[in-house]
Amino acid sequence: MRFLYKRPKVELVYEELTDVMDVMASDFFIFLDLLVFSLIFTLFLTPVFHSLSLSIFFFIGCYSLFSSFYYFVVKRWTIKRDQF
Q1: What would the DSSP string read from start to end of 27-77?
Q2: d(CA 50, CA 18)
Q3: How far is CA 52 from CA 26, 35, 44, 48, 64, in A?
C-alpha cells in the first residue's frame, strides 16, 4: 500500500509549515494565550481572594502585566533586532 501514497514535495511541506508558524506566532494568538493563562492563574488563586471584585482586579492586573511584558520585552526586542 505504500507505493499508492504519493509524498508531497519538500517545497510544499516547507510552505505549509511556514504558514502554520506564521499563524501560531501571530499577535492575536499570543494575546489570546495570555488571556487564557491569566484566567487560569486567577482561578487557581481564588481561595486566596476574599471577594469577586478583588479577583477581577487581579485578573485585569495579571493580564495587563503579562501583555505589557510581552509587548515591551519581546516585541520591542524583535523590532530593534530587525532594524540592524
Answers
A1: HHHHHHHHHHHHHHHHHHTTTT-SSHHHHHHHHHHHHHHHHHHIIIIIIHH
A2: 47
A3: 32, 18, 14, 11, 18
| C-alpha–C-alpha distance, residues 60 and 68, integer Å | 12
Distance CA 80, CA 83 (A): 5
Cell 504558514: give the residue: 19
**pLDDT tens readout for residues 16-71:** 999 888 888 888 888 999 999 999 999 999 889 889 999 999 999 999 999 999 88
Question: Cell numbers of 29, please?
Answer: 494568538
**Spatial distance between the Cα atoms of 45 and 68, rounded to a whole number of angstroms:** 21
pTM of the model: 0.69
